[in-house]
Specification:
Number of helices of chain B: 7
Strand content of chain A: 15-25%
Radius of gyration of chain B: 21 Å
CATH topology of chain A: FAD/NAD(P)-binding domain
Helix content of chain A: 10-25%
Number of strands of chain A: 18
Number of domains of chain A: 1
Oligomer: heterodimer
Largest interface: A-B, 41 and 42 residues
Mean pLDDT of chain A: 96
Distance between the termini of chain B: 41 Å
Low-confidence stretches of chain B: 9-15
Shape of chain B: elongated
Largest sheet of chain A: 7 strands, mixed
Order of helices and strands of chain A: EHEEHHHEEHEHHEEEEHEEEHEEEHEEH
Number of helices of chain A: 11
Mean pLDDT of chain B: 86
Chain lengths: 532, 191
């Protein structure tokens, strides 16, 4: 196969343009480092690629083409063209244990559609083994990452309220002192009675809170960043003399031409499973089990967050019939982890959190009626809804893993992943506990509970996949050191969620951004000293 | 023809009944050579009738009747029939997975069977009270699934969505001075 070699060499080659790759580019270019960024997808033109349309103009009236996205429940017919096509990008999982791998292959990655929840992790997560004896500690502590959280939050214009809760450390927020609606106040009072903490949501604000508008433009403005879209990384290449990384072979998404980009340092920010997939596909005599995998744990310790979506759907009774005051409904908030803040409180390890929200009309599926009776009930229940969703910690386990499935290749001939992750009794017990608490809180607030359940969505559906290329102090049990640097190959860094040693009940993106910034700062310093 | 007239009535467009009398050809000035006009077109449903793709005629008749019962028309509110929800679901089910197709086919056939067994009548000929006896599964809590219940809950949800998301529903909302819902940001294919 003829390969066209690109003539320029860059200081750093970044794979991926989402939260982690985007932050690497932002940080490195500001330090004067010349970066080449490859992303598997095209750039979005917000004027040309989207338009306001009525649902009846869509071919499937909003239902979406049947079978188009068997594993992406988040996709709608409106945004179907944003999500990575599952036929072009196949993967496998064990029979009976589905994994929902949700991907966006566009410049900006999943930050084009993320939920923007922005929570700091604490030493309950970074030093989890010290706390409850399970798993491994991270090789860093909260104190190591705090200065980077401080710098990331203003970039993403995170709004929130400082509450002094150690399990979700306060940050540099746009102050959210908005008043709570009466229904939310009642809910908070109910939570206070049970000793359950509540706070405002912490979210990145703005019309778009993406790498595409908050990181990449500033990086490009330095003149030190070159972005190549539609570049699907195929394999990492090594200098035969030194064994160090010297670049990446990639395939042009549209033409399927093969090219090679060279650099002194490689930063992987392709998203958790794609970075690991690239490493696993980069085999050689020196690295038969995947590049930089002397530990044997590359691909292992896959985790995410479990979600129980709408674990509670309730109604605020005095809002029925539109009779409540104007400030009765609206708004919402967050309940941070409150279980096992002292180790061993419950029979499960770690904890969970809730999002709660007031307003909206409960879906028709909650009303066992039909015809005019249903319509009357829906009208009566308009804007009376109060619901909660659980997000919980998933324990990192060796047997939860990804590997290459040699029998399955994507549309560009690159071997795909086999993903094996199941939830265990620990997650199930947490989900049950969470639903019980949620119901107690809602009833304590005087809400009418329509339905509750403790059914977790399949692994992966949270889109918070983490691990498989974990950090650690010991090169025998981890792939990366405390600066996201490979133990084995010193000019290789992995800065996305794959580096996580463990997770929490917090959404991980803010931590991914902070880690990527910290690692990039380290790279720039090492390069200045001539050590990379 | 009836369906086309119904749509035109809702959309407020004139109904053509006979050809106009022949008249002299109008004077036309040539269009500019570099003119790039935007041509007016119409949606297929305004000019044509959907062809049946998945259900048998008998099943479609049951689904239409079911739509009338579950999503009846109301004041300024088209029902499932006005929105041609059954015809839309016929199109959707033709492309759906096997499990969904079986759920619907079996469900519709079972309704027809129970109707004949209990009332010695076709489902589409039952009175509302008689049909109500077969639809009691919709009045059990969400978590309980008797035979036929799963189909009825699925059909109810789909008929509601197909109705609310229809052109006819949006037109009726607009005509009633209400904001027509269902607007969203559509993303085109990104190359």
């Amino acid at each position: 196969m003829a390969v066209l070699l690109m003539k320029q060499e860059y200081d750093v080659l970044i794979i991926g343009s989402g939260a982690s790759g985007g932050m690497a580019a932002y940080t490195l270019t500001q330090q004067g480092v010349r970066c080449l960024m490859l992303d598997a997808g095209p750039a979005v033109d917000f004027d040309r690629h989207r338009a306001l349309k009525p649902v009846y103009d869509l071919p499937y009236r909003g239902f979406g083409r049947p079978g188009r996205f068997p594993h992406i429940t988040q996709a709608s017919e409106f945004d179907a063209n944003l999500w990575a096509d599952e036929k072009e990008n196949p993967y496998t999982y064990p029979n009976g244990d589905p994994y929902y791998w949700v991907r966006i292959r566009l410049i900006g990655g999943k930050t084009l559609r993320w939920g923007r929840a922005s929570w700091r992790m604490s030493d309950l997560e970074f030093k989890c083994r010290d706390h409850d004896g399970f798993g491994e500690n991270w090789p860093i502590s909260y104190a190591d990452l705090a200065p980077y959280y401080d710098r990331v939050e203003p970039i993403f214009r995170v709004a929130g309220r400082r509450d002094g809760l150690p399990q979700i450390p306060d940050g540099v927020f746009l102050a959210d002192n908005s008043p709570d609606s009466l229904s939310v106040q009642r809910f908070i009072a109910s939570a206070n009675k049970l000793g359950v903490p509540t706070t405002k949501s912490r979210v990145a604000t703005g019309t778009l809170a993406s790498s595409a508008n908050l990181l990449l433009p500033d990086a490009l403005a330095t003149g030190k960043l070159t972005i190549v879209p539609n570049a699907i990384a195929r394999e990492i290449t090594l200098d035969p003399k030194t064994g160090m990384v010297n670049g990446v072979s990639f395939v042009d998404r549209q033409s399927k031409r093969h090219l090679h980009a060279a650099a002194r340092v490689l930063v992987l920010g392709a998203s958790t499973l794609e970075s690991t997939r690239l490493l696993l596909n980069s085999t050689s005599t020196a690295w038969p089990d995947g590049l930089a995998n002397s530990s044997g744990v590359l691909g292992r310790y896959l985790l995410d967050q479990f979600y129980v979506k709408n674990c509670i759907q309730s109604i605020v009774p005095d809002a029925r019939g539109g009779k409540g005051p104007r400030n009765l409904m609206g708004g919402g908030g967050y309940i941070p982890r409150f279980r096992n803040l002292k180790a061993g409180e419950k029979k499960f390890l770690r904890g969970y959190a809730f999002d709660f929200s007031s307003g909206g009309t409960p879906a028709s599926k909650y009303f066992p009626l039909y015809g005019d009776a249903l319509f009357q009930e829906l009208a009566d229940a308009a804007n009376t809804g109060f619901n909660m969703t659980t997000m919980g910690t998933v324990l990192p386990r060796f047997e939860s893993r990804v590997r290459i499935d040699p029998a399955v290749k994507d549309a560009w001939g690159i071997p795909s992943l086999h993903i094996a992750q199941t939830y265990t009794e620990n997650e199930r017990e947490m989900a049950k506990d969470a639903t019980g608490v949620a119901e107690e809180l809602c009833r304590g607030a005087g809400f009418e509970v329509l339905a509750s359940h403790a059914e977790m969505v399949p692994p992966g559906e949270s889109i918070h996949e983490l691990g498989t290329c974990r950090m650690g102090k010991d090169p025998k049990t981890s792939v990366l050191n405390g600066f996201n640097q490979s133990h084995d190959v010193k000019n290789l860094f992995v800065v996305d969620g794959s580096a996580f040693t463990s997770g929490g009940s917090q959404n991980p993106t803010l931590t991914i951004l902070a880690l990527a910034m910290r690692a990039s700062q380290y790279i720039a310093e090492k390069m200045r000293k001539g050590e990379l | 023809m009836k369906r086309r007239q119904a749509i035109q009535a809702i959309l407020g467009t004139p109904i053509l009944t006979a050809l106009p009398a022949a008249s002299a050809a109008p004077q036309q000035t040539p269009r500019p050579a570099n003119d790039l006009p935007k041509l007016a077109t119409t949606v297929a449903d305004a000019a044509a009738d959907a062809e049946r793709q998945f259900f048998t005629p008998q099943q479609l008749a049951v689904l239409r009747r079911l739509g009338d019962l579950l999503v009846p028309a109301g004041e300024n509110r088209p029902g499932a029939s006005d929105a041609h929800a059954a015809e839309f679901l016929d199109f959707l089910l033709a492309q759906s997975g096997h499990a969904r197709q079986v759920l619907y086919s079996n469900g519709l056939d079972r309704l027809q069977l129970e109707s004949g067994r209990r009332f010695n009548r076709r489902f589409e000929d039952l009175t509302a009270e008689q049909a109500g006896e077969l639809l009691t599964r919709l009045q059990t809590p969400l978590s309980y699934r008797a035979p036929l219940a799963e189909f009825l809950w699925a059909a109810r949800g789909d008929l509601l969505a197909a109705t609310f998301n229809s052109r006819e529903y949006a037109a009726a909302q607009t005509a009633a001075g209400r904001r027509a819902g269902g607007l969203g940001t559509y993303w085109y294919p990104i190359e």
